[in-house]
Design goal:
Low-confidence stretches: 519-528
Distance between the termini: 62 Å
Structural class: alpha+beta
Radius of gyration: 34 Å
Shape: elongated
Number of helices: 14
Helix content: 25-40%
Length: about 525
Protein backbone atom coordinates (compact mmCIF):
# COMPACT_ATOMS: atom_id res chain seq x y z
CA UNK A 1 0.00 0.00 0.00
CA UNK A 2 1.42 3.40 -1.02
CA UNK A 3 2.17 6.03 1.58
CA UNK A 4 -0.73 8.19 0.36
CA UNK A 5 -3.26 5.35 0.64
CA UNK A 6 -5.29 4.68 3.75
CA UNK A 7 -6.05 1.29 5.29
CA UNK A 8 -9.12 -0.44 3.85
CA UNK A 9 -11.70 -2.72 5.51
CA UNK A 10 -11.31 -6.48 5.28
CA UNK A 11 -12.26 -7.77 1.84
CA UNK A 12 -11.33 -4.50 0.12
CA UNK A 13 -8.20 -3.90 -1.94
CA UNK A 14 -6.46 -0.94 -3.57
CA UNK A 15 -6.38 -1.26 -7.37
CA UNK A 16 -5.55 0.97 -10.31
CA UNK A 17 -8.05 2.06 -12.93
CA UNK A 18 -6.32 -0.06 -15.59
CA UNK A 19 -6.82 -3.17 -13.45
CA UNK A 20 -10.58 -2.78 -13.09
CA UNK A 21 -11.71 -0.98 -16.26
CA UNK A 22 -11.86 -2.71 -19.63
CA UNK A 23 -9.52 0.07 -20.76
CA UNK A 24 -8.70 3.70 -19.98
CA UNK A 25 -8.37 5.98 -22.98
CA UNK A 26 -8.93 9.57 -24.04
CA UNK A 27 -10.50 11.32 -27.01
CA UNK A 28 -8.84 13.03 -29.91
CA UNK A 29 -6.32 15.79 -29.18
CA UNK A 30 -6.85 17.37 -32.58
CA UNK A 31 -9.64 19.71 -33.61
CA UNK A 32 -11.62 18.17 -36.48
CA UNK A 33 -13.37 20.36 -39.02
CA UNK A 34 -16.77 21.39 -37.70
CA UNK A 35 -19.91 20.90 -39.79
CA UNK A 36 -23.46 22.14 -39.39
CA UNK A 37 -25.05 18.68 -39.41
CA UNK A 38 -23.10 15.71 -38.15
CA UNK A 39 -21.92 13.82 -35.08
CA UNK A 40 -21.61 15.76 -31.77
CA UNK A 41 -18.07 16.26 -30.42
CA UNK A 42 -18.12 16.25 -26.63
CA UNK A 43 -15.46 18.20 -24.69
CA UNK A 44 -14.94 18.95 -21.01
CA UNK A 45 -17.38 21.88 -21.29
CA UNK A 46 -20.20 19.47 -22.10
CA UNK A 47 -19.74 17.43 -18.92
CA UNK A 48 -22.37 18.69 -16.47
CA UNK A 49 -23.40 17.60 -13.00
CA UNK A 50 -26.64 16.10 -14.29
CA UNK A 51 -25.09 14.43 -17.37
CA UNK A 52 -23.99 15.28 -20.89
CA UNK A 53 -25.04 18.62 -22.37
CA UNK A 54 -25.38 18.28 -26.15
CA UNK A 55 -26.91 21.76 -26.58
CA UNK A 56 -23.54 23.51 -27.01
CA UNK A 57 -21.65 20.64 -28.65
CA UNK A 58 -20.26 21.24 -32.13
CA UNK A 59 -20.67 18.66 -34.90
CA UNK A 60 -18.08 16.77 -36.94
CA UNK A 61 -18.33 14.59 -40.03
CA UNK A 62 -19.13 10.88 -39.87
CA UNK A 63 -15.68 10.12 -41.29
CA UNK A 64 -13.91 12.07 -38.50
CA UNK A 65 -16.15 10.40 -35.92
CA UNK A 66 -15.25 6.95 -37.23
CA UNK A 67 -11.53 7.79 -37.12
CA UNK A 68 -11.81 9.01 -33.50
CA UNK A 69 -13.88 5.96 -32.51
CA UNK A 70 -11.11 3.59 -33.55
CA UNK A 71 -9.31 4.42 -30.28
CA UNK A 72 -12.04 5.96 -28.16
CA UNK A 73 -15.49 4.59 -28.98
CA UNK A 74 -17.96 5.47 -26.23
CA UNK A 75 -20.61 3.02 -24.99
CA UNK A 76 -23.50 3.34 -22.59
CA UNK A 77 -22.24 2.84 -19.03
CA UNK A 78 -18.76 4.24 -19.71
CA UNK A 79 -17.47 7.14 -17.62
CA UNK A 80 -16.22 10.42 -19.12
CA UNK A 81 -13.76 12.56 -17.16
CA UNK A 82 -12.61 16.15 -17.82
CA UNK A 83 -8.85 16.10 -18.41
CA UNK A 84 -8.28 19.80 -19.13
CA UNK A 85 -9.26 22.95 -17.23
CA UNK A 86 -11.55 21.92 -14.40
CA UNK A 87 -10.25 18.42 -13.73
CA UNK A 88 -12.85 15.74 -12.98
CA UNK A 89 -16.60 16.31 -13.21
CA UNK A 90 -17.16 12.63 -14.10
CA UNK A 91 -20.28 11.70 -16.06
CA UNK A 92 -21.76 8.26 -16.73
CA UNK A 93 -22.94 7.85 -20.31
CA UNK A 94 -26.67 7.11 -20.06
CA UNK A 95 -27.58 7.67 -23.71
CA UNK A 96 -27.44 5.53 -26.84
CA UNK A 97 -26.72 8.66 -28.86
CA UNK A 98 -23.61 8.44 -31.02
CA UNK A 99 -20.89 11.01 -30.33
CA UNK A 100 -17.12 11.51 -30.24
CA UNK A 101 -14.91 12.94 -27.49
CA UNK A 102 -12.03 15.42 -27.44
CA UNK A 103 -9.59 15.88 -24.53
CA UNK A 104 -11.89 13.82 -22.32
CA UNK A 105 -10.84 10.76 -20.33
CA UNK A 106 -12.76 7.55 -21.05
CA UNK A 107 -13.09 4.78 -18.44
CA UNK A 108 -14.54 1.78 -20.27
CA UNK A 109 -17.04 -0.11 -18.12
CA UNK A 110 -16.25 -3.53 -16.68
CA UNK A 111 -19.34 -4.55 -14.75
CA UNK A 112 -17.84 -7.92 -13.74
CA UNK A 113 -15.40 -6.07 -11.46
CA UNK A 114 -16.60 -2.54 -10.74
CA UNK A 115 -19.98 -0.84 -10.62
CA UNK A 116 -19.80 2.18 -12.98
CA UNK A 117 -21.70 4.37 -10.52
CA UNK A 118 -19.32 3.34 -7.72
CA UNK A 119 -16.39 4.49 -9.88
CA UNK A 120 -18.17 7.71 -10.84
CA UNK A 121 -18.77 8.58 -7.19
CA UNK A 122 -15.14 7.82 -6.35
CA UNK A 123 -13.97 10.17 -9.10
CA UNK A 124 -16.29 12.84 -7.62
CA UNK A 125 -14.99 12.42 -4.07
CA UNK A 126 -12.71 14.97 -2.45
CA UNK A 127 -10.63 12.09 -1.07
CA UNK A 128 -9.78 11.09 -4.66
CA UNK A 129 -9.04 14.70 -5.58
CA UNK A 130 -6.56 14.98 -2.70
CA UNK A 131 -4.90 11.73 -3.73
CA UNK A 132 -4.17 12.94 -7.25
CA UNK A 133 -2.98 16.27 -5.85
CA UNK A 134 -0.57 14.52 -3.46
CA UNK A 135 0.77 12.42 -6.30
CA UNK A 136 1.09 15.53 -8.50
CA UNK A 137 -0.90 13.89 -11.27
CA UNK A 138 -2.32 17.25 -12.38
CA UNK A 139 0.08 19.26 -14.53
CA UNK A 140 0.15 22.71 -16.08
CA UNK A 141 0.14 26.26 -14.72
CA UNK A 142 -2.05 28.46 -16.92
CA UNK A 143 -4.28 25.53 -17.90
CA UNK A 144 -4.44 22.44 -15.71
CA UNK A 145 -4.49 18.98 -17.27
CA UNK A 146 -4.03 15.35 -16.28
CA UNK A 147 -2.10 13.09 -18.69
CA UNK A 148 -3.65 9.84 -19.91
CA UNK A 149 -0.80 7.88 -18.37
CA UNK A 150 -1.80 9.15 -14.93
CA UNK A 151 -5.48 8.39 -15.52
CA UNK A 152 -4.48 4.76 -16.08
CA UNK A 153 -2.80 4.44 -12.69
CA UNK A 154 -5.19 6.30 -10.41
CA UNK A 155 -5.89 4.41 -7.19
CA UNK A 156 -9.36 3.06 -6.41
CA UNK A 157 -10.50 1.45 -3.12
CA UNK A 158 -12.29 -1.66 -4.35
CA UNK A 159 -14.86 -3.46 -2.13
CA UNK A 160 -16.52 -6.78 -3.01
CA UNK A 161 -18.91 -6.33 -5.95
CA UNK A 162 -22.12 -6.90 -3.90
CA UNK A 163 -20.93 -4.29 -1.40
CA UNK A 164 -20.32 -1.84 -4.26
CA UNK A 165 -23.97 -2.23 -5.24
CA UNK A 166 -25.09 -1.63 -1.64
CA UNK A 167 -22.86 1.45 -1.36
CA UNK A 168 -24.24 2.93 -4.60
CA UNK A 169 -27.83 2.29 -3.48
CA UNK A 170 -27.20 4.00 -0.11
CA UNK A 171 -25.41 6.98 -1.69
CA UNK A 172 -28.24 7.53 -4.14
CA UNK A 173 -30.90 7.32 -1.45
CA UNK A 174 -29.08 9.88 0.71
CA UNK A 175 -28.28 12.12 -2.25
CA UNK A 176 -31.93 12.05 -3.32
CA UNK A 177 -32.90 13.40 0.10
CA UNK A 178 -30.16 16.05 -0.09
CA UNK A 179 -31.19 17.05 -3.61
CA UNK A 180 -34.79 17.53 -2.49
CA UNK A 181 -33.64 19.80 0.34
CA UNK A 182 -31.34 21.83 -1.91
CA UNK A 183 -34.06 22.17 -4.55
CA UNK A 184 -36.43 23.55 -1.91
CA UNK A 185 -33.76 26.05 -0.78
CA UNK A 186 -33.22 27.17 -4.37
CA UNK A 187 -36.96 27.71 -4.84
CA UNK A 188 -37.08 29.88 -1.71
CA UNK A 189 -34.03 31.78 -3.00
CA UNK A 190 -35.79 32.40 -6.34
CA UNK A 191 -38.86 33.69 -4.48
CA UNK A 192 -36.66 36.06 -2.47
CA UNK A 193 -35.16 37.36 -5.71
CA UNK A 194 -38.67 38.09 -7.04
CA UNK A 195 -39.62 39.69 -3.73
CA UNK A 196 -36.53 41.94 -3.89
CA UNK A 197 -37.60 43.06 -7.35
CA UNK A 198 -41.15 43.65 -6.09
CA UNK A 199 -39.82 45.86 -3.27
CA UNK A 200 -37.84 47.99 -5.73
CA UNK A 201 -40.84 48.21 -8.06
CA UNK A 202 -43.04 49.36 -5.18
CA UNK A 203 -40.38 51.90 -4.26
CA UNK A 204 -40.23 53.58 -7.70
CA UNK A 205 -44.02 53.51 -8.08
CA UNK A 206 -44.51 55.24 -4.74
CA UNK A 207 -46.36 52.32 -3.15
CA UNK A 208 -43.63 51.57 -0.62
CA UNK A 209 -44.07 55.01 0.98
CA UNK A 210 -47.68 55.71 0.04
CA UNK A 211 -49.02 55.95 3.61
CA UNK A 212 -45.98 57.93 4.76
CA UNK A 213 -46.37 60.37 1.84
CA UNK A 214 -50.05 60.92 2.64
CA UNK A 215 -49.22 61.59 6.29
CA UNK A 216 -46.48 64.14 5.39
CA UNK A 217 -48.10 65.74 2.34
CA UNK A 218 -47.81 69.28 3.67
CA UNK A 219 -44.09 68.93 4.42
CA UNK A 220 -42.94 67.71 1.01
CA UNK A 221 -41.39 70.05 -1.52
CA UNK A 222 -42.19 68.97 -5.11
CA UNK A 223 -39.42 67.08 -6.88
CA UNK A 224 -39.65 69.58 -9.74
CA UNK A 225 -38.13 72.18 -7.40
CA UNK A 226 -35.33 69.76 -6.56
CA UNK A 227 -34.72 69.13 -10.28
CA UNK A 228 -34.49 72.90 -10.93
CA UNK A 229 -31.86 73.11 -8.19
CA UNK A 230 -29.94 70.17 -9.72
CA UNK A 231 -29.99 71.75 -13.18
CA UNK A 232 -28.81 75.04 -11.73
CA UNK A 233 -25.90 73.32 -9.99
CA UNK A 234 -25.13 71.42 -13.18
CA UNK A 235 -24.70 74.71 -15.08
CA UNK A 236 -22.69 76.30 -12.26
CA UNK A 237 -20.27 73.35 -12.20
CA UNK A 238 -19.80 73.57 -15.96
CA UNK A 239 -19.12 77.32 -15.75
CA UNK A 240 -16.64 76.83 -12.92
CA UNK A 241 -14.86 74.15 -14.93
CA UNK A 242 -14.65 76.40 -18.02
CA UNK A 243 -13.30 79.32 -16.00
CA UNK A 244 -10.64 77.09 -14.47
CA UNK A 245 -9.56 75.98 -17.95
CA UNK A 246 -9.34 79.59 -19.16
CA UNK A 247 -7.33 80.61 -16.12
CA UNK A 248 -4.94 77.70 -16.69
CA UNK A 249 -4.37 79.07 -20.21
CA UNK A 250 -3.97 82.64 -18.85
CA UNK A 251 -7.13 83.74 -20.68
CA UNK A 252 -9.63 86.29 -19.36
CA UNK A 253 -13.15 86.28 -20.81
CA UNK A 254 -14.21 89.70 -22.19
CA UNK A 255 -17.90 89.06 -21.57
CA UNK A 256 -20.39 86.28 -20.80
CA UNK A 257 -20.73 85.06 -24.38
CA UNK A 258 -18.73 81.90 -23.54
CA UNK A 259 -21.61 80.82 -21.33
CA UNK A 260 -23.75 80.35 -24.45
CA UNK A 261 -21.69 77.23 -25.23
CA UNK A 262 -23.34 75.44 -22.32
CA UNK A 263 -25.35 72.46 -23.52
CA UNK A 264 -28.60 71.95 -21.67
CA UNK A 265 -29.37 68.40 -20.60
CA UNK A 266 -32.17 66.77 -22.55
CA UNK A 267 -35.27 65.82 -20.57
CA UNK A 268 -36.49 62.23 -20.95
CA UNK A 269 -39.24 61.15 -23.31
CA UNK A 270 -42.11 60.37 -20.95
CA UNK A 271 -44.74 59.49 -23.56
CA UNK A 272 -44.54 55.75 -22.79
CA UNK A 273 -43.72 56.07 -19.10
CA UNK A 274 -46.22 55.44 -16.27
CA UNK A 275 -47.73 58.21 -14.18
CA UNK A 276 -45.87 59.12 -11.01
CA UNK A 277 -47.24 60.00 -7.57
CA UNK A 278 -48.06 63.66 -6.96
CA UNK A 279 -44.94 65.65 -6.24
CA UNK A 280 -42.62 63.32 -8.18
CA UNK A 281 -41.05 63.95 -11.58
CA UNK A 282 -39.08 62.22 -14.32
CA UNK A 283 -35.46 63.19 -15.03
CA UNK A 284 -32.89 61.84 -17.46
CA UNK A 285 -29.56 60.48 -16.25
CA UNK A 286 -27.95 63.37 -18.13
CA UNK A 287 -30.02 65.92 -16.16
CA UNK A 288 -28.87 64.38 -12.86
CA UNK A 289 -25.18 64.35 -13.89
CA UNK A 290 -22.79 67.21 -14.53
CA UNK A 291 -20.13 65.09 -16.18
CA UNK A 292 -19.84 61.72 -17.90
CA UNK A 293 -16.92 60.06 -19.66
CA UNK A 294 -15.26 56.81 -20.67
CA UNK A 295 -12.36 55.34 -18.71
CA UNK A 296 -8.72 54.91 -19.59
CA UNK A 297 -7.42 52.52 -22.25
CA UNK A 298 -3.97 52.63 -20.64
CA UNK A 299 -2.39 49.18 -20.22
CA UNK A 300 -2.92 47.71 -16.76
CA UNK A 301 -1.34 44.80 -14.95
CA UNK A 302 -1.19 43.22 -11.50
CA UNK A 303 2.53 43.92 -11.18
CA UNK A 304 2.69 47.59 -12.09
CA UNK A 305 3.21 50.15 -9.34
CA UNK A 306 1.01 52.88 -10.81
CA UNK A 307 -2.48 53.99 -9.79
CA UNK A 308 -5.20 51.35 -9.36
CA UNK A 309 -7.67 51.02 -12.23
CA UNK A 310 -11.12 49.58 -11.54
CA UNK A 311 -12.46 47.00 -14.01
CA UNK A 312 -15.63 44.93 -14.48
CA UNK A 313 -14.65 42.41 -11.73
CA UNK A 314 -14.59 45.32 -9.27
CA UNK A 315 -18.29 46.05 -9.85
CA UNK A 316 -20.33 43.67 -7.71
CA UNK A 317 -24.01 44.02 -6.75
CA UNK A 318 -24.03 47.80 -6.92
CA UNK A 319 -20.81 48.24 -4.94
CA UNK A 320 -17.12 48.82 -5.62
CA UNK A 321 -15.01 45.83 -4.53
CA UNK A 322 -11.30 46.59 -4.24
CA UNK A 323 -10.12 42.99 -4.73
CA UNK A 324 -8.19 41.70 -7.72
CA UNK A 325 -6.97 45.19 -8.64
CA UNK A 326 -4.82 46.02 -11.64
CA UNK A 327 -2.55 49.05 -11.88
CA UNK A 328 -1.74 51.51 -14.65
CA UNK A 329 1.60 51.05 -16.41
CA UNK A 330 2.04 54.81 -16.87
CA UNK A 331 0.40 57.32 -14.53
CA UNK A 332 1.34 60.21 -16.83
CA UNK A 333 -1.25 59.03 -19.33
CA UNK A 334 -3.97 59.34 -16.68
CA UNK A 335 -3.58 63.10 -16.27
CA UNK A 336 -6.50 63.84 -18.60
CA UNK A 337 -8.88 61.76 -16.48
CA UNK A 338 -10.15 62.83 -13.09
CA UNK A 339 -9.91 60.10 -10.45
CA UNK A 340 -13.08 58.64 -8.96
CA UNK A 341 -14.93 60.64 -6.32
CA UNK A 342 -17.84 60.13 -3.92
CA UNK A 343 -21.17 59.94 -5.76
CA UNK A 344 -19.71 58.69 -9.05
CA UNK A 345 -21.75 56.05 -10.81
CA UNK A 346 -19.72 53.47 -12.74
CA UNK A 347 -21.61 51.63 -15.50
CA UNK A 348 -20.41 48.65 -17.56
CA UNK A 349 -20.77 49.73 -21.18
CA UNK A 350 -19.20 46.90 -23.19
CA UNK A 351 -18.64 43.17 -22.71
CA UNK A 352 -19.03 39.81 -24.41
CA UNK A 353 -21.81 38.95 -21.95
CA UNK A 354 -24.98 40.93 -22.62
CA UNK A 355 -26.30 40.46 -19.10
CA UNK A 356 -23.38 42.51 -17.72
CA UNK A 357 -24.17 45.57 -19.85
CA UNK A 358 -25.57 48.37 -17.70
CA UNK A 359 -24.53 46.86 -14.38
CA UNK A 360 -23.68 49.66 -12.01
CA UNK A 361 -21.76 50.50 -8.84
CA UNK A 362 -21.73 53.65 -6.73
CA UNK A 363 -18.60 55.18 -5.23
CA UNK A 364 -19.63 55.64 -1.61
CA UNK A 365 -16.34 56.75 -0.07
CA UNK A 366 -13.44 59.13 -0.52
CA UNK A 367 -10.25 57.27 -1.38
CA UNK A 368 -6.88 58.07 0.18
CA UNK A 369 -5.19 58.01 -3.23
CA UNK A 370 -6.47 58.25 -6.82
CA UNK A 371 -8.48 55.40 -8.30
CA UNK A 372 -9.22 55.36 -12.02
CA UNK A 373 -11.43 53.17 -14.20
CA UNK A 374 -11.02 51.18 -17.42
CA UNK A 375 -12.34 52.11 -20.86
CA UNK A 376 -15.17 49.57 -20.88
CA UNK A 377 -16.77 51.51 -18.02
CA UNK A 378 -18.56 54.87 -18.12
CA UNK A 379 -18.52 57.24 -15.18
CA UNK A 380 -21.51 59.47 -14.54
CA UNK A 381 -20.72 62.13 -11.94
CA UNK A 382 -24.06 62.81 -10.28
CA UNK A 383 -25.03 66.08 -8.68
CA UNK A 384 -24.59 65.12 -5.02
CA UNK A 385 -27.59 66.80 -3.45
CA UNK A 386 -27.94 64.90 -0.24
CA UNK A 387 -28.69 61.22 -1.00
CA UNK A 388 -29.82 61.31 -4.64
CA UNK A 389 -26.85 59.19 -5.88
CA UNK A 390 -27.69 56.54 -3.27
CA UNK A 391 -31.32 56.40 -4.42
CA UNK A 392 -30.29 56.06 -8.07
CA UNK A 393 -28.01 53.14 -7.16
CA UNK A 394 -30.70 51.48 -5.04
CA UNK A 395 -33.36 51.51 -7.76
CA UNK A 396 -31.05 50.81 -10.71
CA UNK A 397 -31.79 47.08 -10.85
CA UNK A 398 -35.54 47.44 -11.29
CA UNK A 399 -36.92 45.52 -14.25
CA UNK A 400 -37.88 48.69 -16.13
CA UNK A 401 -34.33 50.09 -16.13
CA UNK A 402 -32.66 46.76 -16.96
CA UNK A 403 -35.12 46.21 -19.84
CA UNK A 404 -34.61 49.78 -21.09
CA UNK A 405 -30.85 49.20 -21.25
CA UNK A 406 -31.11 45.72 -22.77
CA UNK A 407 -33.35 46.88 -25.63
CA UNK A 408 -30.92 49.68 -26.51
CA UNK A 409 -27.72 47.62 -26.34
CA UNK A 410 -25.96 47.21 -29.70
CA UNK A 411 -24.07 44.06 -30.72
CA UNK A 412 -21.09 43.81 -33.05
CA UNK A 413 -18.49 41.06 -33.56
CA UNK A 414 -19.64 39.24 -30.43
CA UNK A 415 -19.35 42.34 -28.22
CA UNK A 416 -22.34 44.09 -26.66
CA UNK A 417 -22.22 47.84 -26.10
CA UNK A 418 -24.29 50.75 -24.85
CA UNK A 419 -23.04 54.26 -25.50
CA UNK A 420 -22.80 57.30 -23.29
CA UNK A 421 -25.22 59.14 -25.60
CA UNK A 422 -27.87 56.45 -25.13
CA UNK A 423 -27.43 56.26 -21.36
CA UNK A 424 -27.84 60.03 -21.13
CA UNK A 425 -31.50 59.51 -22.10
CA UNK A 426 -32.28 56.94 -19.39
CA UNK A 427 -35.39 58.13 -17.50
CA UNK A 428 -35.32 57.97 -13.70
CA UNK A 429 -38.02 58.54 -11.08
CA UNK A 430 -37.27 61.47 -8.77
CA UNK A 431 -39.28 61.87 -5.53
CA UNK A 432 -39.01 64.79 -3.14
CA UNK A 433 -35.86 64.92 -1.03
CA UNK A 434 -37.60 63.86 2.18
CA UNK A 435 -39.32 60.96 0.47
CA UNK A 436 -36.01 59.85 -1.06
CA UNK A 437 -34.69 59.40 2.47
CA UNK A 438 -37.77 57.44 3.52
CA UNK A 439 -37.59 55.22 0.42
CA UNK A 440 -33.94 54.39 1.06
CA UNK A 441 -34.73 53.67 4.71
CA UNK A 442 -37.55 51.27 3.75
CA UNK A 443 -35.54 49.55 1.01
CA UNK A 444 -32.60 49.00 3.36
CA UNK A 445 -34.87 47.72 6.13
CA UNK A 446 -36.59 45.14 3.92
CA UNK A 447 -33.56 44.21 1.83
CA UNK A 448 -31.47 43.60 4.96
CA UNK A 449 -33.96 40.87 5.94
CA UNK A 450 -33.82 39.42 2.40
CA UNK A 451 -30.02 39.50 2.50
CA UNK A 452 -29.95 37.63 5.80
CA UNK A 453 -32.36 34.99 4.52
CA UNK A 454 -30.30 34.55 1.33
CA UNK A 455 -27.15 34.26 3.40
CA UNK A 456 -28.74 31.52 5.52
CA UNK A 457 -29.90 29.70 2.37
CA UNK A 458 -26.42 29.88 0.80
CA UNK A 459 -24.86 28.57 3.99
CA UNK A 460 -27.23 25.61 3.98
CA UNK A 461 -26.61 24.89 0.29
CA UNK A 462 -22.86 24.82 0.97
CA UNK A 463 -23.51 22.67 4.03
CA UNK A 464 -25.41 20.22 1.83
CA UNK A 465 -22.39 19.96 -0.46
CA UNK A 466 -20.09 19.32 2.52
CA UNK A 467 -22.54 16.66 3.73
CA UNK A 468 -22.48 15.12 0.25
CA UNK A 469 -18.69 14.83 0.47
CA UNK A 470 -18.95 13.44 3.99
CA UNK A 471 -21.27 10.70 2.69
CA UNK A 472 -18.77 9.86 -0.07
CA UNK A 473 -15.90 9.76 2.40
CA UNK A 474 -17.83 7.31 4.58
CA UNK A 475 -18.65 5.25 1.50
CA UNK A 476 -15.02 4.87 0.42
CA UNK A 477 -13.72 4.06 3.88
CA UNK A 478 -16.24 1.27 4.45
CA UNK A 479 -18.38 3.17 6.98
CA UNK A 480 -21.55 3.76 4.96
CA UNK A 481 -22.94 0.23 4.73
CA UNK A 482 -22.34 -2.97 6.66
CA UNK A 483 -19.84 -5.52 5.35
CA UNK A 484 -21.18 -9.00 4.56
CA UNK A 485 -18.74 -11.84 5.38
CA UNK A 486 -20.31 -13.97 2.64
CA UNK A 487 -19.28 -11.49 -0.07
CA UNK A 488 -16.44 -12.68 -2.27
CA UNK A 489 -13.39 -10.52 -1.32
CA UNK A 490 -12.36 -8.03 -3.98
CA UNK A 491 -8.89 -9.57 -4.17
CA UNK A 492 -10.36 -13.02 -4.93
CA UNK A 493 -12.68 -11.49 -7.50
CA UNK A 494 -9.72 -9.87 -9.25
CA UNK A 495 -7.72 -13.08 -9.21
CA UNK A 496 -10.64 -15.01 -10.68
CA UNK A 497 -11.25 -12.41 -13.41
CA UNK A 498 -7.54 -12.32 -14.28
CA UNK A 499 -7.43 -16.14 -14.45
CA UNK A 500 -10.46 -16.18 -16.74
CA UNK A 501 -8.88 -13.53 -18.97
CA UNK A 502 -5.61 -15.45 -19.11
CA UNK A 503 -7.53 -18.62 -20.02
CA UNK A 504 -9.36 -16.77 -22.79
CA UNK A 505 -6.06 -15.41 -24.14
CA UNK A 506 -4.52 -18.89 -24.10
CA UNK A 507 -7.53 -20.39 -25.87
CA UNK A 508 -7.43 -17.71 -28.54
CA UNK A 509 -3.69 -18.26 -29.05
CA UNK A 510 -4.16 -22.03 -29.49
CA UNK A 511 -6.98 -21.52 -31.97
CA UNK A 512 -4.87 -19.02 -33.90
CA UNK A 513 -1.93 -21.44 -33.99
CA UNK A 514 -4.09 -24.33 -35.26
CA UNK A 515 -5.62 -22.17 -37.96
CA UNK A 516 -2.23 -21.14 -39.38
CA UNK A 517 -1.09 -23.16 -42.53
CA UNK A 518 1.88 -25.40 -41.94
CA UNK A 519 5.16 -24.65 -43.70
CA UNK A 520 6.70 -27.06 -46.23
CA UNK A 521 9.24 -28.04 -43.61
CA UNK A 522 6.46 -28.98 -41.17
CA UNK A 523 4.76 -31.06 -43.86
CA UNK A 524 7.93 -33.02 -44.78
CA UNK A 525 8.08 -36.69 -43.82
CA UNK A 526 10.84 -37.74 -41.45
CA UNK A 527 13.82 -39.44 -43.10
CA UNK A 528 14.77 -42.98 -42.25
Amino acid sequence: MGEDLYELPKGWVWVTSSEVCSSVRDGTHDTPKYVEQGIPLITSKNLKENGLDFSTAKNISLEDHQNISVRSEVDKGDILFAMIGTIGNPVIVRTDKVFSIKNVGLFKKNELVINSYYLKYWLSCIVFQKLIENKEFVKGTTQKFIPLGHLRIIDIPLPPLPEQHRIVAEIEELFTQLDAGVELLKKVKAKLKRYRQAVLKAAVEGNLTKEWRTAHQGELEPASVLLECILKQRREKWEAEQLAKMQAQAKTPKDDSWKLKYKEAIAPDTSDLPDLPNGWCWASLEELSWDSRYGTSEKCDYNFSGSPVLRIPNIVDGSIVLDNLKYAANDNKLDAIEPLAYGDLLIIRTNGSKELIGRVALVTQTYDYPYFFASYLIRFRLISIDILPILVNKIWNIFRILTWIETRTATSAGQHNISQTVLNKLPLEVPSLLEQKKIIEEIERIVSVIDQLEKTININIKRAERLRQSILKQAFTGQLVAQDPSDEPAEKLLERIKAEKAKQVTTKTKKKTKSQPQSPTQLALPLD
